[in-house]
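User: Before I run my own analysis I want an independent prediction to cross-check against. Here's the chain; please return only the structure tokens and, at the end, one sentence I can use as a sanity check.
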Amino acid sequence: MDLFSKSIGIDLGTANTLIYMKGKGIILREPSVVAVETRTKKVLAVGNEAKNMVGKTPSSIEAVRPLKDGVIAEFAVTAKMLRAFFKKIAGAVWINRPKVIICVPFGVTDVEKRAVEDATLDAGAKSVALIEEPIAAAIGAGLKVSRARGSMIVDIGGGTTEVAVISLGGIVYPGSIRVGGDELDESIIDYVRTKHNILIGESTAELVKKTIGAVHSDVQNENLEVRGRNSYSGLPATITLSTTEVREAMSGTINTLINTIKRVLENTPPELAADIYDDGIMCAGGGALLKGLRTLIFEETGVKAYIAKRPLDSVADGIGIVLDSLDSLGGVLSNTKSK
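Assistant: Structure tokens:
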């Protein structure tokens, strides 16, 4: 049987792209980054290879992240990135085009939806159906979204955070905001520049966040040596950052997240709110790994929070479950578009 006789699901994220194949599970996990030649726009590298070039390229090469805030910012580059990923999982010879289910943030415009559909078709897909990201994340995190009971998902991705109350297979009240891990990285960069007069790059900020980042004061303080460039002298410099400083740097973005969760809870119908109080809030996405998040959510809302077993894979896992159960879960998909 040919590889692409099977359907695939794509978690097209601002930070990372994951591809799920029916019967095989997640078969690709790479950064959503493309290195292109500045003059010709020729793609030189995608995924891990391209991410390693970020901040290190000459003027003739640009490392591009073609998605911003969860939506396509550069259509042609996104299509080329997807085509390259398809080739990585299929080999150079393209025989049968795949049927694709791909996620989009809740509340994106029709234009943004069409951009995702068209980019996927241009990359070589036979057909494409859309699934809203919070629904996919909830399914992948193990929530039973089809029942007449309220479930709440908080999916913190690279470009967006999806907060949603779900019942009977649909979103009852959404709280999608275009704030996520990228915003946290930027807040760390701004803090280090303002407080220490040191310039650091995106990769360093991400490392700081993952290594010593925390969102609650109960988390044990740790230190990390960080290298950058002095903004005054232009010379290399080294500083030591603490967990306390990183928490302070991220506080504005985290407050936006917490306020969104509160707003969704405040606007949830009473019967569903009671279900959520009993069952708790499920957290997914890379941001769910922030230390102290569960404690902070409970402290601010009075509702217990849980972390999905595979928070980084929840959306892809959810799409995979839908692929395997189209008879019962096909209703969560939008109309299929074919080329």
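Sanity check: Residues 243-266 form the longest helix (24 residues).
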